Amino acid sequence: MPAHRAGRSPAFQYSALSHLRCPRCGTERAADEIAGRCTCGSPLLAEYDLDAVKAVTDPEVIGGRPPTLWRYHELLPVRSVHHVVSMGEGMTPLLPLRRLGAHYGLSRLLMKDDGLLPTGTFKARGATVGVSRARELGVDGVAMATNGNAGAAWATYAARAGLRSFIAMPTDAPEITRLECALAGAEVELVRGHIGRCAEIVERAVASRSGYQDVSTLKEPYRIEGKKTIGFELVEQLGWRVPDVIVYPTGGGVGLIGIYRALQQLRELGWITGKMPRLVSVQSAGCAPIVRAVQQGALACEPWPEPRTVAFGITVPKPLGDFLILEAVYATGGTALAVGDEQILAEQARCARHEGLVICPEGAAALAAARRLRETEWLGPEEEILVLNTGAGLKYPDTLGNSSGAL
Fold first, then answer.
1. Would you say 310 and 399 are in contact if contact means Cβ atoms under 8 Å apart?
2. 368 and 285 part of one domain
3. Distances (CA, A) of 128 to 161, 345, 390
4. What is the chain's alpha carbon radius of gyration, rounded to the nearest angstrom?
5. Cβ(131)–Cβ(107) below 8 Å
6. How many domains is the chain built from?
7. Counting Cβ atoms within 10 Å, is residue 407 exposed (0-12), middle (13-18) or buried (19+)?
8. CATH of the domain at 230
9. Long-range Cβ pairs for the range 196-202 (8 Å, 24+)
């Protein structure tokens, strides 16, 4: 037995993190060292001693804790509360969309609104956990390629932690995210092209800067651990049960993978039972590599040529974790579909007019998908459908101007 696995139920005070595991080749690594990807190229995943978790906590105990995502700290990777870098993130509302649902023919349509998180997007979840763990492991600076919002979140949390940051983003990323990074003291480099070209810039930057870690999507193990708290929260908010379907706008897909991992862990703990919710991956017609892979029954996707969409956060031509996204979709009996920019803008406006919620275009893409899936009867009228809004619509003033005339 590897040394780091000896004694699978050690006493712990804050986190039950046990080791890192490669989901592709099965390699295991000790957790308490700075880690990127596996030598095979796959992302690494954090694993926990769930027997130890069951011995010290349960849903009732968790329910008595402060309403932040850190209430699930046994299942998060930060070993000491003293290393937590937080702005009170988590426990975003789960809102019934009664008027919009009636319009779609869905009587139990819900939205988890992560636009209310610090920095205005769900990227705060990955940033609070990823930056906290980076600081705990002695990282001096973080670097990433981003479509905008992730960079803004990580730059902001890095500033709060006293870490340096280097952010590379496309020139046509939302201007507000560029300003957020700059205000937080990040070194920002604008790149002509899509996020894949930004990744090359980040690799060179990390190589030339001492103490920096590349924390781009799935290039370190801990952003996904923050994103999985979406799954923990929605289950707790539903009374420790799951909805029938979860509809998720997919770029890098970290949140979808994280939700699936959260549900798996909760089932193993015995805190939820029964069927898994069907997971739906939603992309834009202008960048839909996961959708094409599902249509082909593939286990990985091919790069999407010349990606472009108003939903900038899901403009990822080939996700690094494509095989993990596809596994989650296939294993739950889910699906993937693409929606056009015109549909996205229309649903953004319709959500504001019917529900008073000004959501981001990525969240609007999830609503457009729910509408389509009901029209094709893939969704039943009485099923409980949860869509994720990943950010505040006010961060996209240009899109709001376009969507206001979409109906």
1. yes
2. yes
3. 10, 30, 16
4. 20
5. no
6. 3
7. exposed
8. 3.40.50.1100
9. 196/145, 196/303, 196/317, 196/318, 197/170, 198/145, 198/146, 198/168, 198/169, 198/170, 199/145, 199/168, 201/145, 201/168, 202/143, 202/144, 202/145, 202/166, 202/168
Among residues 179, 214, 249, which one ends one of the domains? Answer: 214
Query: Are 101 and 200 contained in the same domain?
Result: no
Q: What is the pLDDT of residues 210-264, one digit of tens each?
A: 999 999 999 999 999 999 999 999 999 999 999 999 999 999 999 999 999 999 9
pLDDT computed for residue 174 by the predictor: 87
41: exposed, middle or buried (C-beta count within 10 Å: 0-12, 13-18, 19+)? Answer: exposed
The residue range of the domain holding 75 is 11-83
Task: Judge contact between 261 and 329, C-beta under 8 A.
Answer: no
Mean pLDDT of 361-368: 98
Statement to judge: residues 304 and 391 lie in one domain? yes
Q: How far apart are CA 94 and CA 291, in angstroms?
A: 27
If asked whether residues 107 and 151 sit together in one domain, one would say no
Three-state DSSP state, 9? coil
> Do the bridges between strand 212-214 and strand 245-249 make them parallel or antiparallel, or are there none, so unpaired?
unpaired
Sign of CA dihedral 279, 396, 226, 384: negative
Q: Does residue 6 lie within any of the structural domains?
A: no
Confidence of residue 9 (pLDDT cuts 50, 70, 90): very low
- 233 and 283 belong to one structural domain: yes
Greatest extent of the chain over all pairs of C-alpha atoms, in Å: 63
- pLDDT digits over 89-115, tens only? 999 999 999 999 999 999 999 999 999
Half-sphere exposure of 378 (CA within 13 A, CB side): 18
Chosen domain end from 57, 83, 109:
83
Strands 17-21 and 28-29: antiparallel
- Pick the closest to residue 313 from 127, 113, 149 (CA basis): 149
CA–CA distance, 332 with 176 (Å, rounded to integer): 37
Clarify whether residues 246 and 332 are in a common domain: yes
